Amino acid sequence: MELKTRQFGVVPIDETKIITMPKGLPGFPELKKFIILDHEDIRPFHSLQSVDDSKLAFIIMDPFLFKADYTVDIEPYIKEMEWGKDASDSLFLYVIINATNPDPRHLTANLLGPLLINIKKNQGVQMMVSDKNYSSKYLIFGGMKKEVKASTGGLKKSE
Predict the structure, then answer these.
(1) pLDDT tens digit sequence for 117-146
(2) Is residue 149 assigned to a domain?
(3) 150 in a domain, yes or no?
């Protein structure tokens, strides 16, 4: 299947990798199907492209690349999505990046609304985190590692 995107033009996508977000995203509840596009030109970022609306895409990133101590409670979401107890090996966590300033040093991440993706079930949910230590406008270059390779959105488990 081919998908027209605003950022990358027409791109081939594997329909088996389309992620369904049953609740949509806040502000976009009607949009349920997304795909994560990985382009070498924008790494360590990825594009969460809506399949339902080709004009809508979000830049996402593995939060552990710039905030190694980021922890969120995923258990309520695993239960809510009915993914089962053994789902943790299939889960990836991303955060949405905000680019409101043309200067890349001002890129921020929404640590209060991470995306939890189950790659085995091809489902996702945007979590709502209420931790006063986190912000919806966390400056990512303050804590980003100097050398960043391609991110897999790997989920770190809290001890």
Answers:
(1) 999 999 999 999 999 989 999 999 875 544
(2) no
(3) no
